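Why do we care about 3D structure at all? Because function follows from shape, and shape follows, mostly, from sequence. That is the central idea of this module. The next example makes it concrete: a single protein chain, its amino acid sequence, and then its structure expressed as tokens.
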Amino acid sequence: MHPPATPSVPTRGHPDVLVIGGGIIGLVTAWRAAGRGLTAAVVDPAPGGGAARVAAGMLAAVTELHYGEQTLLGLNLASARRYPDFTAELEEASGQRIGYRRCGTLAVALDADDRAHLRELHALQTRSGLDSQWLSGRECRRLEPMLAPGVRGGLRVDGDHQVDPRLLASALLIACERAGVVFHQEWAERLTVDGGRATGVELAGGEGLPAGQVVLAGGSWSGRLTGVPEAVLPPVRPVKGQVLRLRLPRMPAGSPAFLSRTVRAVVRGNPLYLVPRENGELVLGATSEEQGWDTTVTAGGVYELLRDAHELVPGITELPLVETCAGLRPTSPDNAPLLGPSALPGLHLATGHFRNGVLLTPVTGDAMAEALATGRLPEEARPFSPARFTAQGAERARVPEEQPV
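And the structure:
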């Protein structure tokens, strides 16, 4: 069960909602809260940053399905269905495109083991009522001629799309500003608690900032905010991902694109994706490393990504490498987000989205706005209440920090 409603306490001259964290999750929360008539503020030294600056932006509810995550699948699908309307609304509010493309995804196998794994995934997708089509290796190469001759088969998923997370973050920032959201470009040093209720934050410069309700949306850092009672701290840890950006060639008129859709594979046991952008960029990723708070781009990470991508698409090594970067995915013990009221009255959580933060942006914004306005989560978000990690549920769900997910 999620906590009972905790209506906002009026704070004259201060915001109804204070969001800690200015990444896409914090921004969409503030924007949607403002849309519900609440005054909102965001605390972040560099709003518009966060893990989204590194993310590939795949809206992959189907191809991201993993065993044991069928409950999360429902939330992912709900958010994916909202993306067309969400895109139109956000682009109108901000005056900026966000790179939404209905290009589909092709997940391929390079050897017999990977082919067997894809077959199992296809069966799981089918049992889950999802739409995916099995293709032979030849059919895969007909769709994407740049694929290696050794491709043994694949899954075509036309319903998995993409968005450019950097454009998404920029558009949300503009939309928030136009909606009257106030930005405090400082670190939140401490949560302030009075009478057993969250009442605001203390900024790094020492200034106190009261608010009616507080939303902790600090990504991987959400579990480290001073002042949050230990029993309420979200069990979120960072999982490092290294990503490369390459420049696609200009193809002659009438020639097929280098890649026309997102291509995914598992190469030597390593998940790999290639995401072609409208702007001529190709995003290649991503590693998954339990390295704590380290965001160093390593030679080994770059080498492994290029090696595996070359095996999948041999022509990729001829492309210019324009950027290398690394970020931290905020990861919960069950790989699903923590949404809504916490056990501390006045404090809400919006964190732990792991690899689905971009995909879950629309549904998160709607769920958090509902919780902030009414004190209760909508039905579809209730399985992701922070309450699932309290008391007996915490020990049952917890994964040791040193164990990769």
